[in-house]
């Protein structure tokens, strides 16, 4: 795998057999061989766009040379091409003196002023600069950069559509000519393009004898008829443009049309499987995975979907863990793969220790650099208001590290949390950082926390959610639970619908990301005894919450056996239960949340009800948000 760094893009680029949608010139449906792809940005580039000159002289602006730039570099989200009048999305040429701007497509192929002999119309067409309208041919808006008009007929055509004839011989269907039709003119078979499988729009080409339908994109730009890709197959493979049921020999999944095939080997492959990466990282496994054309014979189970893997079709597998494999299609999902091709990149992973051992039980932790921490393992219990700085949970007879000079304290397990890890909730590696005096909202359970967090600039989870790994064995259910991203199901614990949940493969049991981390036992200021989480197994009668005095429905709740009391989970473990007592916290809420806090204060912990004060929005907030400063006294939440 050749890894190329070009000045036109910030990340390394990798060769790909063809490109259909270029992020450089933003030409969609334009197949071209020998392009590049960026796995990290999930973008493609035509070869000529990726290798564009950094400076050119152009006839549209002969006064000065034009310099290549990108929208990110310009820091301007709204630039218009001076030739076609359309918005620029990525690469463009500009004159730093005159502020002249032209996109790369127009710089390479400026539009002609007149099309004298268009194939789709009998009269000449004139280019309309900065014009809007609907093309008479494809009836689409903005599917092309240039719009032309026939002043005799008052009809408009895109540049590409103006040059499309009403009847053609297509390379993938040479037996009969195919004619330009609309849905109203003809009833076709399955409503999909024979080549790419996309849904046909209102206008397309069709052969009534063979029921062969193809969309305009595949008429204008046919995928390569033959490809030589050593990553996919040893021999040259050819496009088979027909409806055919097959199993892809690379991913093992079924297909229904137009595979690439090798007759010599009886080999078939999806178009999308030709350019699979060879070495990758996924968030379901700690080691690198390599693409194997075949696995050793055996009963292989996918590490993501937990279904059988056809060993003869190969998969991604781990050289360190001999029994781990994952389907090719599962491995490159957006929520699983980090979008980096690692072939040719040496593995240079050095584990960063969270602390340095000074001597004996004395350590120097990264989160508390000013003082040393000392280990305490004698089953010491601390006051109920003493909490771990990392997980913000009570210190209850667990071993812990305490600062020799101040009140900083960590559970022993929290002090040993890895500085970096891969997690099922995110495709990129997550870094552990300390909380300090700031708070954040966990992207998984949506609770506010002032403890340690795993994350990136845009994604953060608390360390409780960060410790979750597949499979989960929850005592409320006998089967293992697996995380499914965007599956859209209702949680058995709270009855709420969530887009991502933990599910059982064998039954319909589901837990959302908030309920899966509910503590089995906890403390609350309302009751002097420990509270236990009740899963409503063999429970009879109606329960009422002693905090909010409302009925507890059929879902999970906390109860105290000594006092015969019950509580909603939301009343015991609310959004603020992971905020450290004794500190000033600044948070922002939308208008609806503030109204709920003002009218129903009993849903909030006591320290917030007593000391929360609203500051008018004129003090620095905008829109519908209001600002709260809340002080947490040194007592149990």
Automatic annotation (TrEMBL):
Top-level taxonomic group: Eukaryota
Domain called Zinc finger PHD-type: residue spans: 134-211, 247-306, 387-446, 490-549
All copies of domain Phorbol-ester/DAG-type, residue ranges: 64-112, 121-170, 176-224, 233-279, 475-521
Alphabetical UniProt keywords: Metal-binding, Repeat, Zinc, Zinc-finger
SMART domains: C1, PHD
A single GO molecular function term of this UniProt record: zinc ion binding
Pfam families with a match to the protein in the record: C1_2 (PF03107)
Record protein name field: Phorbol-ester/DAG-type domain-containing protein
Organism, as annotated: Eruca vesicaria subsp. sativa (Garden rocket)
